[in-house]
Amino acid sequence: QVQLVESGGGLVQPGGSLRLSCAASGSIFSINAMGWYRQAPGKERELVAVITSGGSTNYADSVKGRFTISRDNAKNTVYLQMNSLKPEDTAVYYCNADVRTMNRPYYGMDYWGTGTLVTVSS
């Protein structure tokens, strides 16, 4: 019913920047929080940043001051601007959204994208 499609990953040198995008589509009534998670090889998935429908944000300590999350509610899209990238930022980045569908407008469900790989290396 709902699809999340990420884009913008790739290979970047340390200190560089990337911008990730995630567009939600399908039978959407409304979207509450949207966020980005990441999973590095051999590690558990962790929260990177989250943004509410009203624009409030929260970040992992490891990315504060370097990453910025934003969203375009009209486009059902969330972005992650990543600056000053470090090798330890290398991971698969997943988009997440708490979505109320047309069938269940009062019940939010979690949806995930398939992930986009970010590699920070010289």
Task: Provide tags for this entry.
single chain, mainly beta, 4-stranded antiparallel sheet, elongated
Please write out the topology.
Layout: E1 2-7, E2 10-12, E3 18-26, E4 28-39, E5 46-51, E6 57-59, E7 67-72, E8 77-82, E9 91-101, E10 109-112, E11 116-120
Parallel strand pairs: 2-11
Antiparallel strand pairs: 1-3, 3-8, 4-5, 4-9, 5-6, 7-8, 9-10, 9-11
Note down, in words, how this protein is organized.
The chain has 122 residues and is mostly beta strands. It is 0% helix and 58% strand. The protein is built from no helices and 11 strands. The chain has strands at residues 2-7, 10-12, 18-26, 28-39, 46-51, 57-59, 67-72, 77-82, 91-101, 109-112, 116-120. Strands 2, 4, 5, 6, 9, 10 and 11 form a 7-stranded mixed β-sheet that branches. Strands 1-3-8-7 form a 4-stranded antiparallel β-sheet, with no helix packed on it. A hairpin with a 6-residue loop joins strand 4 and strand 5. It starts with a strand and ends with a strand.
Structure in a nutshell:
The chain is mainly beta and 122 residues long.
In DSSP terms (H or I, runs of 4 or more residues), the helix count works out at 0
Radius of gyration: 14 Å
DSSP strand content: over 45%
What's the β-strand tally?
Answer: 11
- SSE pattern, N- to C-terminal: EEEEEEEEEEE
Instruction: Estimate the helix proportion, in percent.
Output: under 10%
State the separation between the terminal residues, measured CA to CA: 40 Å
C-alpha geometry: elongated
Low-confidence stretches: none
Global mean pLDDT: 97
The structure class reads mainly beta
Largest β sheet strand count, sense and barrel closure: 7 strands, mixed
